[in-house]
Amino acid sequence: MQFVHINDIVIHYDIRRADDGRPAIVFINSLGTDSRIWHQVLPKLAEDYTILTYDKRGHGLSGLGSPPYSIEDHVSDLAGLLDHLALSRVIVCGLSVGGLIAQGLYESRPDLVKALVLSNTAHKIGTNEIWAARIAAVEENGIGSILEAIMQRWFTEGFRRPENAAYQAYCNMLVRQPVSGYSGTCAAIRDADFTAAAKEIAVPTLCIVGREDGSTPPDVVKSLSDLIPGSRYEVIEGAAHIPCVEAPAAYAALIRGFIEELEEE
């Protein structure tokens, strides 16, 4: 495990450097998860590419800082981490709020971004009313009070079997997140709107969604893809909001194929 002071927090990160100078891929996790959601995807890519994962502020082993947050707070943390590691021109793969952070990084520091993988995300996610209700619920009754509703959006019915140990573990991951980090990031999502900025993205972009995503359904992700000039849109069957968990082989294959196309250009 590796740690560094960035801005006002300690960030937990892990970097696995490839030897041949091929592109680096940065993975940004979703709301209520930490960098462990990528553990089935990384072995399928790490032999060929430098891989960076980290816990965004308020999640995992990273610091809380002073919630509520803005997307700019999350973007500044990532930019600081990349600068610390002397990484630039990276491929940024962000899932859900991670996709908003990826868009924000491109908007503020385009020098750091070679390409984008925007997974299960949008140019704007939800409404002010939805996020206000979510924040109120977790601050009053804890994250456990919304567990069932969130899991129905995150995972397919087949994955949500009581006997599935992995499903139970991801339930644990959600409810063990700090409430203030969770609600603080809800506020960041509430206030983020990249509708105009998405139209200005000028790097290769892959948009991915699970067919059964209940948080950012295919039509929402398609609307993001339609805004980004020349972007590619892919749907993963048999997966919902976190396809890197439910369909890691298909997920990694899409990313690998996308990068190989970049390298051929």
What's the N-to-C terminus distance? 36 Å
Query: What is the CATH topology classification name?
Result: Rossmann fold
Any idea what the radius of gyration is?
A: 17 Å
Unreliable stretches (pLDDT < 50, length at least 5) are: none
Number of domains: 1
CATH homologous superfamily descriptor:
Alpha/Beta hydrolase fold, catalytic domain
- SSE order, as H and E? EEEEHEHEHHHHHEHEHH
- DSSP summary: helix tally: 10
Overview of this structure, please?
It is built from 10 helices and 8 strands. By secondary structure, it is α/β, with parallel strands linked by helices. The chain has a single domain (2-264), classed as Alpha/Beta hydrolase fold, catalytic domain (Rossmann fold), CATH 3.40.50. Strands 1-2-4-3-5-6-7-8 form an 8-stranded mixed beta sheet, with helices on both faces. Helix 1 (71-84) crosses helix 2. The longest helix has 17 residues, at 248-264. The protein is globular, with a radius of gyration of 17 Å. The model has no long low-confidence stretch (mean pLDDT 97).
Q: Would you kindly provide a brief summary of this structure?
A:
The protein is an alpha/beta fold and 265 residues long. Helices cover 40% and strands 18% of the residues.
Give keywords:
single chain, 265 residues, Rossmann fold, 8-stranded mixed sheet, 10 helices
